[in-house]
Design a protein that fits this description.
This protein has about 90 residues and is an all-alpha fold. The protein has one domain. It is about 75% helix and about 0% strand. The longest helix is centred in the N-terminal third of the chain and has 29 residues. It starts with a helix and ends in an 8-residue tail after the last helix.
Length: about 90
């Protein structure tokens, strides 16, 4: 038994949207508990929480989405996550 293509896209979109909402809530809750504002690391966390589920939605929804494009975008995310923020005076 196979799942229709539109149904799979809908399931992935709902799951990714819920993941985004829960991730945003967790990041904001953590910032509130630490009594901390937005800095480079919190913005990085927000970017990851929003970008990876959106990338998943696009890769499942768009028919002509190539694996090379997905690999390039995931490499960009890996570089973004592993990069270190530096101050202006360094």
């Amino acid at each position: 038994m196979s799942i229709p293509e539109g149904t799979l896209s809908l399931i992935v979109a709902i799951g990714a949207s819920l993941t985004m909402l829960v991730g945003l809530w967790l990041v904001f809750d953590r910032l509130k508990k630490k009594d901390q504002g937005f800095g480079p690391n919190s913005l990085k966390a927000l970017g990851i929480v929003l970008f990876i589920p959106a990338l998943l939605m696009v890769s499942v929804s768009v028919k002509d989405f190539k694996t090379e494009t997905l690999a390039a975008l995931l490499g960009t995310v890996a570089g973004y996550v592993l990069s270190q923020s530096k101050g202006d005076d360094t």
